[in-house]
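protein under study:
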Amino acid sequence: MTEKIGVLGKQPQRRTGVERVVNAPLPTVYGKFQAIGYLDHDRGDEQVALVYGDLGSDRVLTRLHSECLTGDAFGSQHCECGDQLAAALRAVVAEGAGVVVYLRGHEGRGIGLLAKLRAMALQAEGLDTVEANLALGLPVDARDYAVAAGMLKDLGVRSVRLMSNNPRKREALVRHGVEVDEQVPLLIEPCESNITYLRTKRERLDHHLPHLDAVGHLS
């Protein structure tokens, strides 16, 4: 069916940016959150911010968490994502207020689930996480944080204390108009299955992971 033409024969203007769609209570094992759902009109993704307490506007404890099905849902030890998500949720509850922005479309640093699994298969053969993406002809990190900044602005957040080890997240928020007053480390104890991955993140992706210095050979 042909799309209807608007006044004077012009196509209806496509919406852009992020739109708040719904606010629902979400009791969890960590505490009672508000799940605020958004639609990203630019990419078509559905997004959610888990808000705890009265955020205020400044120095809000914040986590931008990239979707990771294998880590968040299945408990994969290939990465530390699931543990980081749990730690972030616990941290905002302990703080009394904060927000975890859960970013869908970020699977595998933005390359998608199947491509991530292909990259994991290459890592099992000896490539590191950067080499694996490049071997597949994919970007090392394709994530965009404009929608996260838009969601924070909609929540009235002007500045954050960002729970992240990744300097690029800080740079992205600042570039999109959200101040980062402090970068709060979110360090997870490594295990045999993820130590190589974490060391690659530190050495090749500039993640701040000083706790790895104290870790000897894991076998």
Observations:
- The chain is about 35% helix and 25% strand.
- The longest strand covers residues 18-27.
- Residues 83 and 115 are 22 Å apart (CA to CA).
